[in-house]
Structure formats: structure tokens, C-alpha cells
């Protein structure tokens, strides 16, 4: 199990507008075998999970370690995770969330929680964040080496950088230049 990948998938799940099965299928690239199993009940369950998980990212973004950990622990109590060792490749033993009778929603919730819990333990709770580009409120997982991520996407980063550049340019214009009256030429 690639815990970082599952933690990042939890951010995609939280940012998704789950208005129907097609919307869920859209955020499951490379997992085509799950597509036909997606139901309306999965959508309802995942919408509730989004409301449970959002405060975890908000707390982490605010630097509230206790609330981040408590939020994840509470979610893992509400959604018990059953990991199992996968041996489909004997040279690459790894963990999966058990799926024998789990719905798509239960599988995704289990993966999200196991991925986030492992990431928080390995890299720290401050690696979960909320996009700083206004008006975006998407969440992200910061796996950068220097813990410097502030935006959910390159688009938001670019938009924020352009806005900051324009603000600096506007501030650099001297007040004299701004207040200058138009030049009139004699006739």
C-alpha cells in the first residue's frame, strides 16, 4: 500500500463534488474495476465522510496537532480499518485495506484513513493543508521535501503569484504618478 498515494487520494475525495456516481468514477482513475460497483449509497456515505474529514485538514492547517490527531482517531473508531498483507507479488509484500465485502465507499474511507494516519505518523500532522489561494478552499497533502506547499494545485499557485505580482506593481507606482493631472498643451 502506498500510504502517500492514499493520503493524496483522500484530499481528492474531500475536494470532489460528489453529485452522483459519475463524479465518483471521475476521481477513480486507474481503478476501473471499481467503476461498475459505485452506487448512490456510496455517494451518500462519502458525502458524510467529507463532512467528518474536513475538520481534520482544517485543524492541521491551523497547526492544531491535538485536534488533527483526535479527528483522525475518532474517524478510525467510526470507520474501523481492516488492513491485510497483500501477497499478489511475493517480492513486494504490502498492506491493503481488506475488501471482501466492503462497498466502494468503505474501501475508499479505509484507504483514506490508513493513508492519512500513516502520513501523519511519518511526516507529521502539519503536512495536511488548506489552499491559501483566495477564494479556493480545497485541501492538499504536502509531501514536498521542505514542507513548503501552500496551494492545492499549480493553477491556484499561479493565480496567487500573478495576484501578488500585480499588487507589488501597483504598490510600486509612486503616489505622485497616481495623482498627476493630465498634461494639457497650449494651442
TrEMBL record:
Report the superkingdom from the record.
Answer: Bacteria
Zinc finger CGNR domain sequence ranges: 127-169
Protein's name in the database: CGNR zinc finger domain-containing protein
Amino acid at each position: 500500500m502506498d500510504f502517500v498515494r492514499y493520503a493524496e487520494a483522500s484530499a481528492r475525495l474531500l475536494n470532489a463534488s460528489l453529485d452522483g456516481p459519475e463524479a465518483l468514477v471521475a476521481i477513480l482513475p486507474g481503478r476501473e474495476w471499481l467503476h461498475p460497483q459505485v452506487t448512490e449509497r456510496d455517494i451518500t456515505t462519502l458525502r458524510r465522510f467529507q463532512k467528518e474529514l474536513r475538520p481534520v485538514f482544517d485543524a492541521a492547517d491551523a497547526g492544531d496537532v491535538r485536534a488533527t490527531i483526535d479527528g483522525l482517531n475518532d474517524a478510525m473508531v467510526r470507520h474501523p480499518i481492516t488492513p491485510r498483507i497483500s501477497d499478489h507479488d511475493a517480492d513486494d509484500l504490502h498492506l491493503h485495506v481488506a475488501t471482501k465485502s466492503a462497498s466502494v465507499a468503505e474501501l475508499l474511507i479505509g484507504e483514506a484513513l490508513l493513508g492519512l494516519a500513516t502520513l501523519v505518523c511519518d511526516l507529521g500532522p502539519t503536512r495536511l493543508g488548506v489552499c491559501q489561494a483566495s477564494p479556493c478552499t480545497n485541501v492538499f497533502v504536502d509531501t514536498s521535501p521542505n514542507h513548503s506547499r501552500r496551494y492545492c494545485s499549480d493553477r491556484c499557485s499561479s493565480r496567487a503569484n500573478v495576484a501578488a505580482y500585480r499588487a507589488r506593481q501597483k504598490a510600486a507606482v509612486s503616489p505622485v504618478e497616481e495623482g498627476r493631472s493630465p498634461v494639457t498643451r497650449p494651442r
